[in-house]
Design a protein that fits this description.
This protein is of the alpha/beta class and 286 residues long. The chain folds into two domains: 174 residues, 3-Layer(aba) Sandwich (Rossmann fold); 55 residues, rRNA adenine dimethylase, C-terminal domain (Helicase, Ruva Protein, domain 3). The protein is built from ten helices and nine strands. A seven-stranded mixed beta sheet has the order 4-3-2-5-6-9-7. Strands 1-8 form a two-stranded antiparallel ribbon. Strand 5, helix 5 and strand 6 form a beta-alpha-beta unit. Helix 8 packs across helix 10. The chain binds S-adenosylmethionine (SAM). S-adenosylmethionine binds next to strand 1 and strand 3. It is found in: Cytoplasm.
Length: 286
């Protein structure tokens, strides 16, 4: 799990990279000879206590439509499918997908998760989905943004992420971690950190701490154009220590809206509801 950052997406090239770049590639403990692929963010959960805690937090039940992103070697897959009987899994690594296909209780989608249309999947199944996964950290934000428009077809999401990312997701105004991610996700979800996970719980261990976040879509959300909201918070947080008059002021003028929004504050001081109210105004015809 490379710490999250922008840049090139992992492709499906050769299959030779070692997980850590330290010395010779070593097979993952209990992985039947599998060598972790760094470009796929492969850090496999091996701590049975942590796995049990995560499964308890998810609390899968028979008949529920659970979907796991990145099942890997099955650390979460096995105890979850034991409880819910059928499980859909999305795995990009073709070798791991081939192993998973041998199991009749799994519906395997071999694909890049960012190409899967989860709204369509929910329509086909005729039920709302419960999303779970120990996500590849190098693309965790793109995955969260890919799922954002699907919030209304989702019951909840339990994701393992870099602890630092979870802190940003749940941060409130005035906190140093309050950021674009906080505003964009708090628009659509109620979120809480449910399990903290140290590096030693994985093989290979990542360089960062991890945490599992529970994301529950809010029943009612302001009708806001996500692109407008995203553009607006990007401008606002571009220089988070500056007074908004010097950043968001010009953007508001460009949108041609009149507002009593207080621009004498910094981006990090403004509650989510106020950003949403401002973005909602942009959609209204003049
Ligand atoms: C951090 S590992 C988690 C593996 C396993 N769930 C566990 O907890 O041990 C991330 C998993 O996501 C898979 N993966 C990486 N990029 C992906 C993508 N774009 N789409 C789907 N799966 C991906 C990796 O192959 C790997 O199995």
């Amino acid at each position: 799990m490379r710490p999250e950052r922008g840049g090139k997406r992992p492709g499906h090239g050769g299959h030779t990279s070692s997980h850590s770049g330290q010395g010779r590639p070593r097979a993952v403990a209990g992985g039947g000879g599998h060598i972790a692929r760094k470009r796929f963010g492969q850090n496999f959960l091996v701590d049975q206590g942590v796995i049990a805690e995560i499964v308890r937090a998810i609390a899968p039940k028979p008949g529920e439509a659970l979907v796991e992103i990145g099942p890997g070697l099955g650390a979460l897959t096995d105890p979850v499918v034991e409880r819910c009987e059928k499980l859909t899994v999305v795995e990009l690594d073709r070798d791991l997908a081939a192993r998973l296909r041998l199991r009749p209780e799994l519906d395997v989608i071999e694909s890049d998760v960012l190409k899967v249309d989860f709204a369509q999947l929910a329509r086909e199944r005729g039920v709302k989905l419960r999303m779970i996964g120990n996500l590849p950290y190098n693309i965790s934000s793109p995955i969260l943004f890919h799922l954002l428009p699907c919030a209304d077809v989702v019951v909840d999401q339990h994701f393992m992420l870099q602890k630092e990312v979870v802190d940003r997701m749940v941060a409130t105004p005035g906190h140093k971690d309050y950021s674009r991610l906080s505003v964009m996700l708090q628009w659509r979800y109620d979120m809480e950190c449910v399990v903290d996970v140290p590096p030693g719980s994985f093989d290979p261990p990542p360089k960062v701490n991890s945490a599992v976040v529970r994301m529950t879509p809010l029943a009612e959300v302001p009708d806001v154009d996500p692109k407008v909201l995203e553009a607006m918070v990007a401008v606002a947080f571009s220089q988070r220590r500056k007074i908004l008059r010097h950043t968001l002021g010009a953007w508001i003028t460009q949108q041609g809206i009149t507002t009593d929004f207080d621009l004498q504050r910094r981006a990090e001081e403004v509650p989510v509801a106020e950003y949403l109210a401002l973005a909602a105004q942009v959609r209204k015809p003049a």
